[in-house]
Amino acid sequence: MNTLRQRSSLLAALFALLLSAPAFAGTATTVVLHSDSTHSFRVYVNGPENAPRGILVVHGWWGLTDQVKAGADQFAALGYRAMAIDLYDGRVATTPDKARSYMNSVQQAEANRKFRAALKALQKPGRKVAAMGWSFGATQALQATLADPGTVAATVMYYPHGIVLKPGNDLASLRGSVLVLRARMDSPSNIKETTRFIQAAKKLGKSVVEHTYDAKHGFANPAVKHYNAHATDAAWRRTTDFLDAQLK
Hints:
Distance between the termini: 38 Å
Number of strands: 8
Helix content: 40-55%
Order of helices and strands: HEEEHEHHEHEEHEH
Low-confidence stretches: 1-23
Strand content: 15-25%
């Protein structure tokens, strides 16, 4: 077995371990927050309470799955205070139709209120905060950043799906840098929308870094058939390097 195949196999085993092992350091918990006086939502939190870095993790269209929680646990293991937000009010999809229905039911104004409440809970004096998401969650991570641009110092977007931001007005408040990790074999609509976003942001003088991998949409999700261990490994290294630079 060559070195690349060995690394890929080890990475796949690592993801499997993350999905089955207890949460990092026994600190993981689910917390109920309030977006306003009448609406509540839950977040999965892990990592040191006094961590100098925080990250808001936003799930894809399946919902707040064990895989998403494992992603938060990875950041907790690196010393982050990680918070994975639930935009589906406890629902986790088991079929594409359900996932699509749950995703389409998200009201952006309410989601933005949840983001602001979650980011407020994640804040701590001296702590720098990032937002990150996959697919639908990538676009929502950007929405979270724009909902509270003074708090989010960096945004990581894995193969964004559904970007519909209006160039100019919506992106004008963007402050921190954005890392976009693209799939070369993504759908034409995702490629078009992501390109439009990147061009609009750069036209406004915003900092956007992009990398494209020879993979399909969903390449970083070990639970789907398009999972690509090599691309995931490379993208994860880009992610940690980017956040190290932006949150120092």
